[in-house]
Design brief:
The chain has 168 residues and is of the alpha+beta class. The protein has 2 helices and 8 strands, in the order αβββαβββββ.
């Protein structure tokens, strides 16, 4: 019986550790770089690695204003403060869908993490996706919830120097 309990405890600890390893802070900013909101996201995979699954997120809007009418709609969708998102990363292309299964009144993120420091946050309705802000994942979230700086992280595949310039 002790062996079963020990195995069960080890499995739970491994799951908690894996979840903590894939927890990240993020910010949403306007075109001027002003923070419109911030939060935490727990991905089902390491950021930058190929993977797919359900992410847990928390979001807190900031006091900064945006003149983008679509940001106001996106902010309203994120107003619940937390939820589940569909997350996927394939060949360094990262996507988030904050309202999985819905095409209307949805908030999504598309990001080529090899080429850009931040992704595009869209408000999607039946007429299409409307760019409304930038989305950036920062360092891994600390377990105690304390702020831990604002340095963006880069995927393992994005190791080119800034001196290399753009390859467009």
């Amino acid at each position: 019986m002790r062996a079963i309990v020990a195995v069960f405890v080890i499995l739970i600890m491994a799951a908690v550790t894996r979840a903590a390893e894939n927890a990240y802070d993020f910010t949403v900013t306007n075109q001027r770089g002003e923070v419109l909101g911030s939060g935490k996201i727990r991905l089902p995979f390491k950021f930058g690695a190929d993977g797919k699954g359900t992410a847990d997120w928390e979001f807190t809007p900031a006091q900064a204003a945006s003149t983008n009418k679509y940001w106001m709609k996106a902010k309203a969708r994120l107003a619940s403060g937390s939820g589940k998102a569909s997350a996927q990363c394939k060949d360094s292309w990262f996507t988030l869908d904050f309202n999985p299964g819905w095409n209307d009144n949805n908030v999504t993120v598309s990001w080529d993490i090899k080429k850009r420091e931040s992704g595009n946050l869209y408000f999607a309705d039946f007429s299409g996706g409307h760019l409304c802000a930038s989305f950036r994942i920062l360092k891994a979230a600390q377990r105690d919830g304390a702020a831990n700086g604002s340095q963006p992280i880069r995927s393992e595949t994005n190791r080119t120097s800034s001196a290399a310039g753009s390859r467009r």
